[in-house]
């Protein structure tokens, strides 16, 4: 429901400040990446996720830039600090939202 509301509110970019706290013992990176990719698809928005590297909190980094159509465009390292950059084409948000009209037409009840 949250991601759908972002789509309804016409949000183009969602920024997640951190996401990797306390999951180092379990290998959940791919699971979390899949969840945020789904969020980008459901919201028809780009998602920028900031990971952090912190041994005390068992954080594993791996920031991400996620496209609503193509999924993960870039993913950061799990062992070094870095800054991810990417040119974001906001027309992809428009394309994704236009697609909604063709595959989920408004229902009309008689």
Structural overview:
The chain has 110 residues and is an alpha+beta fold. It is built from 3 helices and 6 strands. The chain has helices at 2-8, 29-43, 91-103, and strands at residues 13-16, 46-49, 53-54, 59-60, 64-67, 71-75. The strands form 2 sheets. The protein has a 4-stranded mixed beta sheet, with helices on one face. Helix 2 links the parallel strand 1 (13-16) and strand 2. The longest helix has 15 residues, at 29-43. It starts with a helix and ends in a 7-residue tail after the last helix. The relative contact order is 0.18. The mean pLDDT is 83.
Q: Any idea what the shape is?
A: elongated
Beta-strand fraction estimate:
15-25%
Report the oligomer.
single chain
Helical region count? 3
Structural class based on helices, strands and sheet pairing: alpha+beta
Low-confidence spans: pLDDT under 50, at least 5 residues? none
Mean pLDDT: 83
Order of helices and strands: HEHEEEEEH
Any idea what the radius of gyration is? 16 Å
Number of strands: 6
The biggest sheet amounts to: 4 strands, mixed
The residue fraction in helices comes out at: 25-40%
Terminus-to-terminus distance: 27 Å
Strand order of the largest sheet: 1-2-5-6
């Amino acid at each position: 429901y949250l991601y759908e509301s972002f789509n309804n509110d016409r949000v183009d970019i969602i920024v997640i400040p951190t996401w990797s706290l306390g999951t180092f013992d379990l290998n959940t990176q791919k699971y979390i990446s899949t969840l945020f990719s789904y969020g980008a698809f459901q919201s028809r928005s780009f998602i920028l996720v900031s990971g952090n590297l912190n041994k005390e909190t068992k954080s594993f980094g791996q920031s991400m830039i996620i496209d609503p159509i193509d999924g993960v465009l870039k993913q950061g390292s799990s062992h070094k600090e870095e800054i991810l950059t990417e040119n974001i084409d906001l027309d992809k948000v428009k394309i994704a939202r236009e697609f909604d009209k063709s595959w989920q037409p408004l229902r009309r009840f008689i």
